[in-house]
Structure prediction request, 116 residues.
Amino acid sequence: MLCDVLERAPDSDAWVYENQRASYSQLDDRVSCLAHGLTINGVTAGDRVGVLLANRPEFLEVILATARIGAIAVPINVREQPDRDFAAFSEAAAPDAALRCRALPRQRRLRQPLVR
Prediction:
């Protein structure tokens, strides 16, 4: 789907969030960069990638990047208690890697490291 829109309207808005916006071309560049970063950090097709992000554009970028390399994004609910939610997530999803947004408020950050 992203490829189709890129061909037809690369400069159209892919998302608008608060006072920011990104075109489909910019979104594709960000997704490619993130997919490359995941790959060089050892994430491969079929890996489960835990994602701790609020509802913001980066969430979409992570979902698309994991899909691009054939990995599986597994969202973690940011509204739950981080340590308890991460423990339940780890047990149920057995992630191979995890990502978090450093923009989350301090009390919402997990104590455990989240990258491979």
Q: What stands out?
A: The beta strands are 13-17, 20-23, 48-52, 72-75, 97-100.
